[in-house]
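Mods, move this if it's the wrong board.
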Amino acid sequence: MATIHTKLKIGAASDVGMSQDVLLQAEAILQSEIADRRITAAALTVARNQTIVHSKGYGCLTPQADSTPVKPDSVFLLASITKPVTACALMLLVDRGQVSLDDPVSLYLPEFQGGERDKIRVRYLLSHISGMPDMLPENTELRRAHAPLSEFVRLAAQTPLLYSPTTDFSYQSKGILLASEIVERVTGKRLRDFEEEEIFQPLGMTNTALGLGRFKIPETVWCGTSMEETEDQQRFGPNSPYWRDLGNPWGGIHSTGPDLAILLQTMLNGGGYAGKRVFSQAATRAMTMDQNGVLNAPWGLGWGLAGSKAWNYFGELVSPTTFGHTGATGTVAWADPEQQLLCVILTNQMVDNGSLLRRVSNVVASAVVC
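Not the wrong board. Structure tokens:
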């Protein structure tokens, strides 16, 4: 049974009731997609019962033929898998009594006033029922101008709501942005620094950073299957220095398969890893259970769920209690508590609206034989 003392170890699939032959089928799917140039880089990490049974890299860091091969611990831009990590940072403050989920957002962000903004509680930002939009109308102009995150926050506090809070579900990056701003104002630290000190370092996630951290772009996996970019892509696209180091809290984390496996295992362990408690059991339970009740739009606090309506490309064979998240760069990370199974699939291009991630996830889930 997983406890906070549990640490991932390397082992054979057969030792934890999984089929290595089936896992090789998942690998073959990724290799086939690379051969067809629908993706040019991938990494797959699978663990069950606290044992890593598969961790490999495929393809190359860039689409160029002579590029460096991807390793199991190559660094990818995660995109929206960043969101549950931002939620984790906020939940640390909830654990410590510095923030209440049922407080109005305006208690921490006084400028967040007018209309129905006073009805928005902190928890709504994390489960996508606040009414905030996914992207600001000014998104492209802000990125083209290399605007700082503070300008995104300023405009997010003023942008019209899409609907009355709690009456609907709409996936919203700007709600996560406001959650990150709460963390920064309460702690007095940049989110990237707070996460490094309070999450990544304690858990031993040594190859993870919000923004670039110590990484250089050429050392990371290129987003996309072509090196040819438009002028706008070069200026503010996913491979630009601006976007890679902005540290945006809805999509700016760089990480690896093994590091994400540690975070997922921490959730399965009830909030700790290798003897270090980072989150309370109560916080991990709240993060991974449905918070949206009668809306028929399941979502945890940051984490998507098996029954969620968006960004949960976990396949169709996982247990109902599965939680995780997907990223638009072609990434997914999920954990199935019933099977004590976790899976991280990192690629550099979203294929067929998530079909590739779902198909590989299905094969991983079907590799459990006992």
